[in-house]
Amino acid sequence: MLIATVSTIISLIFLIAFVAAMIILQVYLSRRESKLPGLVLPAITFSGELFILLNVVTNVMMTSVADNAVGGVDSYDVFVTVLNTVLTLLIISMPTIVLLVIYFLCRRGMNRKKQIEKMNIQDL
User: Fold this and answer.
1) How far apart are CA 41 and CA 99, in angstroms?
2) pLDDT value at position 14?
3) pTM
4) How many Å is the maximal CA-CA distance in the chain?
5) Hey, which of 16, 83, 106, 120 would disulfide with 30, CB 3.0 to 4.6 Å?
6) Residue 31's pLDDT is what?
7) DSSP SS3 for 64
8) Cα separations in angstroms, 94 against 19, 70, 87, 97
9) What is the pLDDT of residues 65-104, one digit of tens each?
10) How many whole angstroms separate alpha carbon 60 and alpha carbon 81?
11) Do residues 100 and 42 lie in contact, with contact meaning Cβ atoms separated by under 8 Å?
12) CA-CA distance, 113 to 3, in Å (whole number)?
């Protein structure tokens, strides 16, 4: 029992460190002069989400085919399947959404600084 607790705590510490490192890396890449480095991590996470999306859609299709073969599909079953699929996709896409929000916030801050510098130069 104690070993399982310790390994769970260690796993959580590594997960938190990994997420923090990803956020720090995203902020660093988003503040680069070029726009492309800040889009690398969201593109990587989105490509991973496409594979998961393919798996979810395949599972939904296989389940509906199996249900049709056994005895028909109930409207409640269709609703639950669609709701489950949509919620799964929303949860899966959270890392990409968070990384894109960080990207756009950093870029907006950089654009504000550039505009302020231009105004200061014009005032001189």
Assistant:
1) 7
2) 96
3) 0.76
4) 80
5) 106
6) 92
7) helix
8) 13, 36, 11, 5
9) 666 666 666 667 778 777 888 888 889 999 999 999 999 9
10) 7
11) yes
12) 51
